């Protein structure tokens, strides 16, 4: 991807007319030349350029998002097309081959459904589809999440460190979705003997800090700035069929942002990874 070449238009009558026509036609590569400092024309030009910059950035994010989504859906679609073509040419020929084909078709259809569901969830979150006003007993919620991890992997060391009565303000379902995504990610990308710890502590007045950590292989430093990007894959050799949709951490990031906070990751190779975010307390 390369950024578009931006052209500055002189603030003459003809230049402004050309710019107006270009913007009306959908162009985001034209800009108004700086006017005399302190004048109304200068302020208006700066406002127009800021608007155009924001529009160009939004369009670029949309193009990349559509391209990434298309790439992720292409593989399961190709598999489905392959099996349908095989059926039209007379195969599979045995009951075992038919069963295997149906299993693969079901698996790829399920994977597509997960991708579409996560895309819809992100669209909902991007439009502000969240109501962070519930009084949420975070201690109980985290106990439920840890219990779920233990049920899925009874042999894994899983620990909860949180005092009773930690109540935050937020959307309970979305907070549960975010924490579950983090624990699921930790379980998916670490060996079963790696410990997972969920920790919640008060941070002065107004916030509760939540940490999800593991003692797995860790993540190289160059990946950390991109970890919460949509469809970003640390290990590009891994198939999506071996993991999630690549949207779980992006969804988590958006949920935390809509609760007025930020999320970050810290990791040391061969030591482990920790994901940290904060939630507002019920009395903030």
Short description:
The chain is an alpha/beta fold and 284 residues long.
> Average pLDDT, to the nearest integer?
83
Please report which band the strand proportion falls in: under 5%, 5-15%, 15-25%, 25-35%, 35-45% or over 45%: 15-25%
Shape: flat
Largest sheet: 5 strands, mixed
SS summary, helix count: 6
Q: Percent of residues in helical segments?
A: 40-55%
Low-confidence stretches: 237-242
What distance lies between the first and last C-alpha atoms, to the nearest angstrom? 43 Å
Structure summary, number of beta strands: 9
Order of helices and strands: EHEHHEHEEHEEHEE
Q: Indicate the radius of gyration in whole angstroms.
A: 24 Å
- The largest sheet has its strands arranged as 4-6-7-9-8
Estimated structural class: alpha/beta
Can you offer a commentary on this structure?
The chain is α/β, with parallel strands linked by helices and 284 residues long. 48% of the residues lie in helices and 17% in strands. The chain has six helices and nine strands, in the order βαβααβαββαββαββ. It has helices at residues 13-24, 40-88, 95-126, 138-152, 172-188, 248-258, and strands spanning 7-9, 30-32, 134-137, 158-162, 167-170, 196-202, 207-214, 263-268, 272-280. It is flat and about 70 Å long. Residues 237-242 have low confidence and may be disordered.
